Amino acid sequence: MQLLSETTSDEELVVLSLQDPAYFAALIERYETKIQRYLMRRSSASHEDIQDLLQDIFLKAYVNLNGFDTSLSFSSWLYRIAHNHMISWYRKQKIRTDGRIFSINDEDVFEHLADAFDLEHEHWTEVVKKSLVGHVQELPEKYRDIILLRFFEEKDYDEISDILQIPPGTVATRLSRAKKRLQSAFIEHL
């Protein structure tokens, strides 16, 4: 097993993982926290269920590694697996997938959202943060998914398109509509 550097790309790690499964651990290390955070924000699953989902997602990714196209983004591919697996899990559990339980604790997310909505950063208070969480939770799922991926997971339009399997133009439209809905709800609340 060769030594890895910080600059080894995900796609290079996939190629190495196909030759030696030990390299897949580096991909898990890179994405475990990110995928866990995404699952927690997107679902109301318990901590134990999230851990089980994570294990299943990485196993599914490893088993399907031969089918990964290294000219594409590994990150988008993995998030797509996570998104689909979570939906399947909910169906098996017969739980409604409304994703209404999540929290926002990251100050960077608030700064990013403040920029997107042209809000002054100093106006962020706990009341405003809770209000924003409530407004995001009330969005229809198709808009909530876009907001979560764009602002919370910092995915670009092409990645969101890959993850949700919708055209980039639809991503842009839904994001614009979601932002308008949030902005109006937010302004009404103030």
What does this protein look like?
- The protein is mainly α.
- It has 2 domains: 10-93, Rna Polymerase Sigma Factor, Chain: A, CATH 1.10.1740; 107-189, Winged helix-like DNA-binding domain superfamily/Winged helix DNA-binding domain (Arc Repressor Mutant, subunit A, Orthogonal Bundle), CATH 1.10.10.10.
- Helix content is 69%, strand content 0%.
- It has 9 helices and no strands.
- The radius of gyration is 18 Å and the shape is globular.
- The N and C termini lie far apart (57 Å).
- Mean pLDDT is 81; it is low at 97-103.
Outline of this structure?
69% of the residues lie in helices and 0% in strands. With 190 residues, it is mainly α.
Helix content: 55-70%
Strand content: under 5%
Say what the CATH topology of the largest domain is. Answer: Rna Polymerase Sigma Factor, Chain: A
The CATH H-level superfamily of the largest domain is: RNA polymerase sigma factor, region 2, helix turn helix motif
**Rg calculated over all Cα atoms:** 18 Å
The CATH architecture category of the largest domain equals Orthogonal Bundle
Number of strands: 0
Main features:
0% strand; 2 domains; mainly alpha; Rna Polymerase Sigma Factor, Chain: A; Arc Repressor Mutant, subunit A; 190 residues; 9 helices
